Records
---
Amino acid sequence: MTSVTRTAPGQQTKNDLLARRYATLGPHSPLFYRQPLELVSGSGVLVTDAQGKVYLDGYNNVPHVGHANRAVAEAVYQQMLTLNLHTRYLNSRVVDYAEALLGKFDGPLERLFLTNSGSEANELALRIARQHTGNTGVLVSNFSYHGNTTALAELTTGLTVREPLGAHVRALQIPDVSGIAEADVPALLKQSLIDVDAAITSLQAEGHGVSALLIDPLFSTEGLPQLPVGYLEQVAARVRAAGGLIISDEVQSGFGRTGSHMWGYQMYGLEPDLVTMGKPMGNGHPIGAVVTTADLLDEFGRHNMFFNTFAGNPVSSAAGLAVLQYMDEESLVSKAGELGVYIRERLERIAKGSPNVGSVRGRGLFFGLDIIESDGQRNPAPSLTKVLIEDMRERGVLISRVGAHDNVLKMRPPLVFAKEHADMLLEQLELSLGNLP
């Protein structure tokens, strides 16, 4: 067995730490930036690296209510000092959280499965849909990611996976009206729905049928496209007519991220059968969930003994409950909406002043810019996008990129982001764009 000497962050070089990481985690797990960034602490929307440099975090949605949030940390600490077991024993903390979370939903979404992650939640939702419908076919977008289980890898279209796209999967091109003349939108919508019809017909013809449509309402991996009005509602209607269920993956768009609603699906007036969630709900503590109807939960429960040792434990529940309480106390959803409007207006002005910005993307506190070449052809510019991200790091602001061409700047800060933080990010972004070659 290899002996490892443990050192404090400031007592080792970055190359030493990188070598140790490669020797243990291997060289394939991705790292941001040309020179990987070693972070050692955080507070609110700020993080500090091993050399003591402080950065504005404009990217991370895991610390939903801020890095090192004291209310969440204290709730977890106190519950760890008290009891942590699984749900085969009664515990009020678990039920308190279930009631609080379900209180954020309306209509028939009134039952809850707790899981450890968004991947597990999506896997469970697909399992429920398959058992309920008797079908296996799944519709996803053609550049999406919903988790890393085998079943989810077989429908992953937005990341490199060795598993081929499942024969039971159809990938839809998500229409984007950004930069398109208004007169051309109806034709785009019509063709997109024709493609949906063809995908459903294909699944039925090959004996798969339709079990579910699985989407992230913001289509974040896809690059935050602007959908034609009515597109998603009409897709959902077609899926239901084919006997399928609607699964809304809210890992990215949920918990008030859009500013206008608590859940992303509410932007469209959709009524999903299953809602999945993960990362932000525990502010860094591993917790996920599937919210569904009483009928679907009862049907699944009658035929399956579903049990997970750590899902729904009192400590995870304490973390989740503290996040919801903090969001309510600080009015974070409405603040995200107000700040999102301000950011959008600023981004629109920045876009008009830069030949390298094709369009402004997103809403609320998930926003981005489509970076293009300045040759008038609107071609995606992934290399320039990478230059911007590296330059923003040097300026003390962390952002990333997303989209099929890796050319959409991805800005998705903790929900405690305030106007002064937005001003800093936007000012540095405008300067960075102005320095592009």
---
Amino acid sequence: MTEQQVVEQPEESVPATAPEPAPRWYSRWSEVPWRLASKSQMARADLPREPAGPVRGYVAGRDYRDKEMEVALYDVAESRPTKATGVQLASAEARRSASVRVCTDCAAQCQLPLQERQGRYLCAMCWRIAMVVDTQIELRERRAENAAWARGLFEAAPLAVTWVELVAAEPTSSGRKRPPLAARVHVVDENGKRVADVLVRLAGPRTKGAPAEAVAPEAGAAKLTKAFAGRRRVVWGPLRTVRERLAELGHPVEVAAPAPGASAARYLRSRWPNDVASRYAQWRGELDPATGELRTPWPPGTADRLWLCLKRMAETPDAGRPGDSERRRKEAGERPYGGPVGAYDVRVAVTGPAGAGERLAELLAAQEAVLPASVVGPVPSREVPGAVVTYMAGRGEVLVPAPADGDVVREG
């Protein structure tokens, strides 16, 4: 009997599948990308869908009892249409009266029901625009407040306009922060002239790493006490840390009271902090176009530059009215941006309650006084709280009465 050799064939390797990514967590709905939606959002869409895949994320929310909860989010690409037919959806839409899906401002035909805001139902973009406009209005009011605050500073002279920077120490091997090694304190008076520029050591003589040119804590404390004597402080930077470190080393700094609203973070209103750096950012009032949030401006860098910023704040006129560029173009006889050509050469702005501008536009359009396609808005009024503005283009010979000499006056 011959022996037969049996050769075992190796089993085919099964390719390993990549693990499913962990669901991502979002702290607010504005952070949730458009491709993700909750089960209830899919059900409330005008073309409803239902999840067919795993949970891809969670967003913080509240239930009907106003208790905190996490709302599961699903990928719309992994969902499927519900069993409702087009005829059934059309019949349901005819019976439905509570849900509004057409944006009041831009007429977008939205998939999800819209929320009401000050009498208007806005899509996500128009809602964001309205929020940005509200922030701009608040910043304009806040700019006037900060200008008055800055003028009050110079009326409270003598001042010590102070800029503080710390020299940080290397952290420990475990990552724990060490106290700062030194600090540069730059002080100018109310005229921008230098009062002191001190690099003071904030560590003991045996601590390594401090700048060699830094003066001893005793000498630095004496110079700072002299610089601040009889002057009201306007501080940008961690002066409190400098004073605390010098006090721990046995050399306290004697200072006068800070200028009103110039010390660290007290709040006149919950939204706008009152420290100098925050007031400076509010005065500039630049919003990030991507997020609508107030931008943090580049820091002045020195006390004399901080003094210059305060002078500019104090001299700020009451400017920046909404629609100012449009008004100036009209006064110069230029055509408004996007204005129609031809006989419709007058730009009309109607300010009033919601719906007033649209009703007036319908009335004037029936008389061929305005072009229906030119109606824009309404948008929130920056001048009249609670009112809205509607823009339209009209015919000058109809809207603008002719003077006695027969010449027709038109606004560009």
---
Amino acid sequence: MKIRIRGNSIRYRLDKKDITTLQETQVIEEITTIGAGSLHFSIHAKGGAPAIALNTNGVQLFLPLAQVSEWITTEQVGFKHELPNADGSVLHLLIEKDFKCLTERDEDESQAFENPAQSC
């Protein structure tokens, strides 16, 4: 899982392995060790409305199981949610399938989806 944070937006990009895990267990988690601690990001597919929780060591995103299941089993690239913050601002969320880059990178893309913009 790749995560990009900019201002009041979080973008999650999931590769094939992440999506398989989410489909089988309804949870995917990414952990980054920082010094003696760790930072956890997780996505949970459950019933109910979208929600997000910030705790002492990470962020938990809760998404409707039906929406996640439809996304996983179709060609749909991604989906968005906007969640209100306590201060009146809005948190923008984007959840997408991770595509291979069109330019060569020093990154393992073996589990990335084929980029639809790629020409043969």
---
Amino acid sequence: MNSSHATARKAPPHCQVDPLAELRRPDDPPWDVYLTGTVFLDIIFTGLDSAPVRGTESWARGMGSSPGGVANMATALARLGLRTSLAAAFGDDHYGEYCWDALETGEGIDLTPSRSIPGWHSPVTVSMAYDDERTMVSHGHEPPPAETAPDHPPHARAAVASLTPGVRAPWIEQAARRGTRIFADVGWDETGAWDLAGLADLEHCEAFLPNAQEAMRYTGTDNPRHAAHALTRHVPLAVVTLGAEGAYAVDGRTGETAEVPAIAVEALDPTGAGDVFVAGFVAGTLADWPLADRLAFAGLTAALSVQEFGGSLSAPGWSEIGAWWRTVPSLPDQDPTALKRYAFLDGLAPGERARPWPLRRAVPTIGFGRTT
């Protein structure tokens, strides 16, 4: 599975829109976004009436399998037209082969920095969605240290990093020194310290995108908007997601703020929605859109993703974005004033006559539907 040559510098195979088309120059970095992390196989159960009850068997009305983990972010970026390079360890089992093929062939993601590890099995997550919530069970082992992120990351316009309290990732500083713009998120601090000093690589980041609870805990505030302002003392741009309320952002370099409400949708599976939000914000930032437009676009892509299931393969492409923009004004109970927030899509989203490109979606089991 390991690629022996660099993938050609071109847009993903399914992408109809290049959001950076007007900005591209011959001497640009080969990749728009670089990221590294662990690829999981995700198995998602949907249509559960409630959380599983101890000692009973629950039947789900829906099931899907897809690449997960860092693949959620990589796929979302690629489907928005960004040339994406991923460094990850893959198991040398059927799960690993499936995930490699889905990302490289299906999504056009560069896997040159990635490796298939002999004798290492793919990590697996089982996710159960119910009542707009989810419960997950995962299993896996850490890959050998020498097989994770390369010592010298490829040159890219931007990189997405997941910060770990108390741990430095040398590649982040290396990339930042080459001019790569670092966008960072963070997971729940299992130590309970919630100390920004523990996020050592934050000093190399341009933007930090925690959720409301994470932002308030790290800043010791009781208001997520106050937390966003406090974070700009540590990073130039703070974006705090507010769940059903939307998102709030502060650019500490200019003092600009923006807040955009969430789009109300019926969620089938929230797996990967946070990654899709970050991908949408990265795309808008690299395209030099106004801050409010970036927030609105990120929220829209995340809202579209939860209407499909399957983590990485639920991410929308430009066909879905264009279809939403064409149809939403005719739906009942729409506020025309609120819809003006998305008027920037007029010059971007494919028109009705654009040839739709069918995106891969999650299927029940690996190899489902094969005839040979």
